[in-house]
Each structure stands twice: as C-alpha cells, then as structure tokens.
C-alpha cells in the first residue's frame, strides 16, 4: 500500500472513531451499541470502496455516483463530530457560567439527547449540498485592476478558469459548459492557469474542445501548466496544445498581437524543499527575460507563491490557481488555509495577485467555496 493508501486508511479509521465518540452523546442506552455497529459496518464498506483502484487509477465514470455518496457520508460524519464537539463545549461553558451566578445547573445530557436526531440530519444535509450544488454551481466574480501600466488597456477584460481536473467528476462535456459560460462574459481573453488536463483518456478530446473556443475570445486563450499536467504526460499535452490556436506559455512570454500587452507564463516547480523556491525564481526569471522593459504585463502561474516574484518585479497582475480555495470556506474566507495564499485577491504594493478557487476538484465536495469564473477589468490610473 502506497502513501496515499495509508493516508486514506488512517482517515477512515479516524473518522470512524470520532463518529463513534460523537454518537455516544446523541444516542443513549442500549441503542448506542446498535448505532455503533451500523457506523462501523458502513465505514468499512465505504472505505474499502473509496480505496478501489478503479476509482483512483482508472476514473471509471460508472463508479462516480456511489463514490460520491461515500464521500458525502464521510464528510457528513466529520461535520457531525464538529457539531457535537461545539455543542458539548457550549454546554460546558453555559454550566460554568450558571455556576458562577449560583444558579441551578443541569448536569445531565438530556438537552443534547432531546435534539440528537437534528445533528446527523443537519450534517448529512450540509454534506449533500456540498457534493451536489456546492461543487457545480458556478459563480462569477468581477474585479477591477488599476495600474499605470494599463493606461493604454483601459477596459480590457480577462476571464480566468483553473483546476477543472478532468476525470471522475469532470467530463469533457462539463468542461464545455465552463468554456461556454466563460465565452459568455464577452472577455477579450481567456486565461487558463493549469490542472485542466488530468485524465489521459479525455485529454485529447478536451484539448480539441478548448482549441475550438479560441476564436470566441478576441485575443484567444492563454494557458500555463499545472502540476497535474506534469503527472498526465506533459510532453504529449504540450505537443497537442501547440498544434492548436491556444497560446501555451512555459517559462516564457509573448505579446498579445496588436495590444502591446505581454503575457508571461511559468511552469510548476515540481520539487520539494528549498529547491522549490530556487526553481520558482529561475522559472520566473526566464519568463521575465522575454519581456521588454516598461511594457504592460500579466503573469499566469499555477502556484500562488509566484505572486511574490511578480510583485517584486512590478508585474501588476498575477493569476494563479492550485489551491481550490481549500474547497471549504466560511464568510468568503478559506476554512483550511494551508497555503501562503489560499483564496481570492492578494495586494502587494502596486501589484495584485489572484488565487482562483478552481472549477473542479479531485475531492468532490465544496462548501462555502463554489467553482468560479473570475473576470478582471484592467484600468489605467
């Protein structure tokens, strides 16, 4: 069993144990043993199915719905655990407060048990929303980017998509729907910041589809690689893309014909540790070297930490992806900010960087972090 498999097993065991603990607060008496047996049996079945090779290695579309159902149940259990822990904490704080006021304190679990059924219902409802509407309901976000560099491009619009992740939960037809909505924004250009071509069986058809949309944007489609393209036969993907009207940028820059605007694009620094930052600097330097001094620029990069390199060099706008916005958010903020820049707009000096929330996912559930079309209107100032 590989590392990923061990992580899945550990996650399954952890979720099962925590759910058993939470259920003990909601189900009293002998009924808990029956509930516990049901939880263990259900999690063993789902866990074994989720780890099946046909799901992760072969992206069998026929397995999508049962796999999604399993993920929804697991996430519902995690939400249930969080809800119960919060309820227990609030109950404990309330008891302490009443004790400080010398008021009667109910030390039993009656109140928690009285509404016990509401917890799993609410948790399952929220998880089901995230696995259906939450992961597919595309939203549009509009931004104005003001910079002296863009004085000759006032009103120019760029629409960005990212991280579609072709595979079990993103078909070529799904990608067509995203591209159609992007074309509907009437933007001058489509910027694609990687992790689109993530299924060798669908990649060629998806490349042809994307190429067919190039003439729907006056200045075409501009693309940079994500880490998943490197994992799915990057040389083949680049060869096919470069035979289409799609503009592919790998540690290079090119002028948008007739606009005076230079688009820069960098690859993914596929290395761990300190070498990541050295390679990232080298990639950016290669792209920047192809840009004449003083011209307006936009950087396309999959990894969001390129925002720092671009800001230091005075690039007004950097478009990135990779993080999926953590796929879980609260009040517009990422719930799991595991990256330096995880979601939304970053403003450093006179430069802007944007971290796209993604259009797909390999983990098929989004709550408070919907897929998006990001539209940027350039303004001079």
Please explain how this structure is put together.
The chain is an alpha/beta fold. The protein folds into two domains: 3-131, no CATH class; 139-379, 4-Layer Sandwich (Purple Acid Phosphatase, chain A, domain 2). It contains 13 helices and 14 strands. It has helices at 3-26, 31-50, 53-56, 64-100, 110-114, 118-131, 133-136, 172-183, 200-212, 227-231, 234-242, 274-289, 306-312; strands spanning 139-146, 157-161, 189-192, 221-223, 247-248, 252-256, 261-265, 297-300, 317-320, 329-330, 333-334, 344-348, 351-355, 372-379. Strands 1-14-2-3-4-5 form a six-stranded mixed beta sheet, covered by helices on one side. Strands 6-7-8-9-13-12 form a six-stranded mixed beta sheet. Strands 10-11 form a two-stranded antiparallel ribbon. Strand 10 and strand 11 form a beta hairpin. Helix 1 (3-26) packs antiparallel against helix 2 (31-50) and helix 8 (172-183) packs parallel to helix 9 (200-212). The chain is elongated and about 75 Å long. The model has no long low-confidence stretch (mean pLDDT 89).
